[in-house]
């Protein structure tokens, strides 16, 4: 992990190269995080890739409900030669959930971005094939948002089996 | 219960003689040397009559071909039943057929998601009569560990013959379930526990709005998934 | 639901699975789109592949997943941290100890608690046993796909031995809930260490037997050598880790690169391939079995005395005999069982090395007793993206072997 000083140096360089991109830095439990503005995340990732963080370890989404902006996308980058990890976090509001896609930089971001779209509704501009991946393609709603109900079915016992719609016998 | 154990002795002189007589009679029968009424008796000692249904049930139940339908973790335990520890081949069920047209038993092993449910139904429809279903594991019998938006209990779209509980059920538990299915096919299915323990009449009846005054305690309480129209627990 | 068909359904019904001649191509060169459906004996689990074939050669592959999607991550948000462990264990159903380990590591990072040394060694032993078991199942099912069905019987016989060990230490064969936040739930019983030693001895001999059957087998070589080759740069761009990356020669293993849970105390090697074809993938995983046996033996040798779970009573249940004498123990027990422990707010990502690659767990806590977000970065989910690169312009039969060597576990892919 880059230690706090190293993180500040990286953030400084990013601020110089991409003005207005870096919103915050955080060093928590030994992990370095850079909070970046959504529109400039591609450029920031390209710069970090040039610095050596060339492996996209994980791309996942978070719903920060009830804090605004609500939807977050985290890019976990890994520098294999120095064994360094850095996380780039992006937050978008629900009414404008657009984040530029990084599939052309890392082809391995294809399925993870589709999963974030499916589960949270974040639209990745420039993704070659943005459709649902885990839920059926005509499903309505984004399940992993925190205000989506957990759902579930009543458990079928002998006393209520006749009353369950769709019970097959 | 008295259990006596005795060593198997070598066959005695009289036993060996009886066996020899039996062998000679068989030889005579094959040559056609036995007179008519003795032949009648000979045949009657060796022939069993039954109904066609029972014979077919016996044949079907002892040669069930399971369809390979492994979905999730239960599939790994299902894969280990033909293994050498618990060998389901000794009952005749080791021939897992990949094609549903050739299978007669569907062991639904694992969680059925809403995307998979129509496909399971399609596979089930492609199986030929007579066919049976075993719902293996907690996730398809009841909702299991995950009672959420993504899963469907198998009872909602398939008629299930045997439910096997467990998460995942041990191979022995699944074998027990398959043998129960075998007994069911043969016509002596297991009694419900109420008949076995002579407890008929103790069923829980949940009070309905059209049956006032019937008290019961509904032990299944759940916020979001309970039908709000159904009263729960009027004492 | 509206009475008419949705757009998607109409589009789905309009797809014709017939061959279409494509203009200037001759009669022998038509592209056929075929569905290798979710119910298939050779796709490991419910994976649907839409293949575009030209004759026997695959021109394009589109994997369709989601058929085992269980909403594990959303269910985990509804449960207290302790109860998330069995939920998350059922994700990648062949490496359940690793799922639990990733989650427990993340929560321990957030809580900043120290796992006792004995617990770390016990965790390592169980994880390596699980790695051996996962590789055995992989080898057995892959050989069935290739036609060498006998290997499956042997692998599952070994697997029963491993499951006996798990049952002895935790009471369950699969999904044991043995790893808890702060350590392991219970110390190992007497005689377990001896049985594990006996197992590793037999396992080495048996692995030699599998090698004798397969390593120089002509049919196996013809099917696996130089098939399914993907170069290292493509794999790194796709985010592939684990034995697939090591088969191309890249010695990336989180147990060595960023050791966790006392892995730095053990001496073991990382098997690495040269070419990145199916045969190398097989050899890498097979060699990992021996390395795991070595790690287990060293861990048993040096197993320290001590507690098997953190002594912090705010996180771990007190031992039952204390409940009779100490009021505080009773209160702690009550709090832990009813509400669970509270975790300070923050976000953590904890990666470990599972049999399929980097398994990471992202936990976001908002200060309450239930996690606000649990995301498992599953290796199979990311590794599955290499099917297109590995299958393009190969024969369908070779692709079956490649898919077996990729070793996807659909529970982890779909979560």
Question: Secondary-structure blueprint of this entry?
Answer:
The complex is a heterotrimer of chains A (about 170), B (about 240) and C (about 425).
Chain A: H1 4-17, E1 22-28, E2 31-36, H2 41-50, E3 55-63, E4 71-79, E5 84-92, E6 98-100, H3 110-120, E7 123-125
Parallel strand pairs in A: 2-5, 6-7
Antiparallel strand pairs in A: 1-2, 3-4, 4-5
Chain B: H1 13-31, H2 36-46, H3 52-61, E1 66-67, H4 73-79, E2 105-109, H5 117-126, E3 132-136, H6 138-141, E4 162-164, H7 171-185, H8 193-196
Parallel strand pairs in B: 1-2, 2-3, 3-4
Helix pairs in contact in B: 3-7
Chain C: H1 7-14, E1 31-36, E2 48-54, E3 57-64, H2 72-77, H3 81-89, H4 96-111, H5 117-146, H6 149-170, E4 179-180, E5 183-184, H7 192-214, H8 218-224, H9 232-238, H10 243-246, H11 254-257, H12 278-301, H13 320-323, H14 327-338, E6 346-354, E7 357-365, E8 373-377, H15 379-383, H16 386-391, H17 396-406, H18 410-414
Major sheet attributes of chain C: 3 strands, antiparallel
Q: Strand-residue fraction of chain C?
A: 5-15%
Question: What is the N-to-C succession of helices and strands of chain C?
Answer: HEEEHHHHHEEHHHHHHHHEEEHHHH
Structural class of chain A: alpha/beta
The rounded distance between the terminal residues' Cα atoms of chain A is: 59 Å
Give the SSE order of chain A as H and E letters: HEEHEEEEHE
Note the quaternary state here: heterotrimer
Helix content of chain C: 40-55%
Strand order of the largest sheet of chain A: 1-2-5-4-3
Measured as a percent range, the helix fraction of chain A is 10-25%
User: Main sheet of chain C: which strands, in order across?
Assistant: 1-2-3
Number of strands of chain C: 8
Low-pLDDT stretches of chain C: none
Question: Largest interface by residue count?
Answer: A-C, 42 and 44 residues
Write down the Rg of chain C.
Answer: 23 Å
- Uncertain spans of chain A: none
Count of runs of 4 or more consecutive helical residues of chain C: 18
Mean pLDDT across every amino acid position of chain A = 88
Write down the Rg of chain A. 20 Å
Summarize the structure.
The complex is a heterotrimer of chains A (169), B (235) and C (415). By secondary structure, chain B is α/β, with parallel strands linked by helices.
Question: Can you describe this structure?
Answer:
- The complex is a heterotrimer of chains A (169), B (235) and C (415).
- Chain A has 169 residues and is an alpha/beta fold.
- Chain A has helices at 4-17, 41-50, 110-120, and strands at 22-28, 31-36, 55-63, 71-79, 84-92, 98-100, 123-125.
- In chain A, the strands form two sheets. Chain A has a five-stranded mixed β-sheet with strand order 1-2-5-4-3. A two-stranded parallel sheet of chain A has the order 6-7.
- In chain A, strand 1 and strand 2 (31-36) form a beta hairpin.
- Chain A is elongated, with a radius of gyration of 20 Å.
- The termini of chain A are far apart.
- With 235 residues, chain B is of the alpha/beta class.
- Chain B contains eight helices and four strands.
- In chain B, helix 3 packs antiparallel against helix 7 (171-185).
- The longest helix of chain B has 19 residues, at 13-31.
- Chain B is elongated and about 75 Å long.
- Chain C is mainly α and 415 residues long.
- In chain C, 49% of the residues lie in helices and 12% in strands.
- Chain C contains 18 helices and eight strands.
- A three-stranded antiparallel β-sheet of chain C has the order 1-2-3.
- In chain C, helix 5 packs antiparallel against helix 12 and helix 5 runs antiparallel to helix 17 (396-406).
- The mean pLDDT of chain C is 89.
- Chains A and C meet through strand 3 and helix 3 of A and helix 1, helix 2, helix 9, strand 6 and strand 7 of C.
């Amino acid at each position: 992990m880059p230690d706090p000083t190293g993180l500040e140096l990286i953030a400084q360089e990013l601020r110089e190269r991409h003005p207005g991109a870096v919103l915050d830095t955080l060093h928590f439990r030994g992990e370095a995080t850079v909070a970046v503005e959504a529109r400039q995340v591609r450029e920031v990732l390209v710069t970090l890739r040039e610095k050596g963080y060339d492996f996209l370890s994980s791309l996942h989404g978070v719903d920060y409900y009830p804090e605004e902006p609500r939807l977050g996308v985290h890019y976990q980058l890994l520098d294999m030669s120095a064994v360094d990890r850095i996380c780039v976090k992006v937050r978008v509001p629900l009414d404008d959930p657009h984040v530029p896609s990084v599939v052309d930089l890392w082809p391995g971001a294809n399925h993870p971005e589709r999963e974030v779209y499916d589960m949270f509704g974040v639209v990745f501009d420039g993704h070659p094939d943005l459709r649902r991946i885990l839920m059926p393609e005509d499903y309505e709603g984004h399940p992993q948002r925190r205000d989506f109900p957990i759902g579930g079915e009543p458990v079928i016992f002998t006393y209520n089996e006749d009353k369950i719609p769709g019970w097959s016998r | 219960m008295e259990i006596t154990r005795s060593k198997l002795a070598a066959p005695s002189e009289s036993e060996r003689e009886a066996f020899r007589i039996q062998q000679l009679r068989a030889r005579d029968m094959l040559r056609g040397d036995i007179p008519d009424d003795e032949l009648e008796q000979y045949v009657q000692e060796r022939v069993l009559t039954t109904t066609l249904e029972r014979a077919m049930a016996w044949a079907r139940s002892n040669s069930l071909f399971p369809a390979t339908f492994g979905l999730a973790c239960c599939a790994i335990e299902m894969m280990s039943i033909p293994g050498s520890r618990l060998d389901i081949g000794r009952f005749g069920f080791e021939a897992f057929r990949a094609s549903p047209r050739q299978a007669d038993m569907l062991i639904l092993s694992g969680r059925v998601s809403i995307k998979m449910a129509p496909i399971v139904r399609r596979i089930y429809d492609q199986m030929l009569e007579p066919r049976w279903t075993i719902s293996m594991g907690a996730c398809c019998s009841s909702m299991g560990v995950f009672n959420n938006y993504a899963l469907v209990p198998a009872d909602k779209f398939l008629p299930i013959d045997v439910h096997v509980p467990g998460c995942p059920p041990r191979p022995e538990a699944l074998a027990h379930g398959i043998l129960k299915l075998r007994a069911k096919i043969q016509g002596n299915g297991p009694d419900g526990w109420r008949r076995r323990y002579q407890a008929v009449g103790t069923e829980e009846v949940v009070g309905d709005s059209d049956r006032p005054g019937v008290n019961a305690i509904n032990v299944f309480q759940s916020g979001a998934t309970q039908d709000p129209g159904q009263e729960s627990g009027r004492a | 639901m509206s009475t008419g068909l949705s757009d998607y359904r109409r589009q789905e019904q309009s797809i014709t699975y017939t061959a279409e001649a494509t203009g200037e191509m001759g009669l022998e060169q038509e592209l056929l789109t075929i569905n290798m459906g979710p119910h298939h004996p050779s796709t490991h689990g419910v994976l649907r592949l839409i293949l575009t074939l030209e004759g026997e050669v695959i021109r394009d592959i589109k994997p369709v997943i989601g058929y085992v999607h269980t909403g594990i991550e959303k269910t985990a948000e509804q449960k207290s941290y302790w109860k998330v462990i069995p939920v998350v264990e059922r994700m990648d159903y062949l490496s359940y100890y690793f799922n639990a380990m990733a989650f427990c590591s993340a929560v321990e990072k957030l809580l900043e608690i120290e796992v006792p040394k004995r617990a770390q060694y016990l965790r390592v032993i169980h994880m390596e046993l699980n790695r051996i078991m996962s590789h055995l199942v992989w080898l057995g099912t892959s050989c069935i796909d290739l036609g060498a069905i006998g290997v499956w019987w042997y692998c599952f016989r070994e697997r029963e031995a491993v499951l006996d060990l798990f049952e002895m230490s935790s009471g369950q064969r699969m999904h044991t809930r043995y790893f808890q936040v702060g350590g392991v739930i219970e110390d190992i019983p007497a005689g377990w260490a001896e049985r594990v030693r006996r197992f590793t001895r037999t396992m080495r001999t048996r692995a030699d037997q599998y090698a004798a059957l397969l390593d120089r087998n002509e049919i196996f070589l013809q099917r696996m050598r130089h098939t399914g080759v993907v170069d290292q740069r493509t794999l790194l761009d796709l985010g592939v880790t684990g034995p697939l990356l090591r088969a191309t020669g890249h010695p990336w293993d989180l147990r060595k690169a960023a050791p966790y849970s006392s892995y730095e105390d053990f001496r073991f090697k990382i098997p690495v391939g040269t070419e990145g074809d199916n045969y190398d993938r097989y050899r890498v995983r097979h060699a990992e079995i021996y390395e795991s046996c070595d790690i287990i033996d060293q861990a048993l040798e040096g197993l320290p005395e001590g507690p098997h779970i953190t002594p912090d009573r705010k996180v771990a249940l007190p031992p039952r005999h204390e409940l009779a004498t100490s009021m505080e123990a009773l209160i702690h027990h009550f709090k832990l069982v009813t509400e669970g422990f509270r975790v300070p707010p923050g976000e953590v990502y904890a990666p470990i090395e599972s049999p399929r690659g980097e398994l990471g767990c992202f936990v976001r806590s908002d200060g309450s007793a239930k996690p606000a977000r649990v995301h498992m970065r599953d290796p199979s989910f990311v590794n599955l993206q290499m099917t297109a690169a590995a299958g393009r312009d190969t024969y369908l039969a070779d692709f079956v072997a490649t898919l077996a060597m990729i070793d996807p576990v659909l529970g982890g892919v779909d979560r």
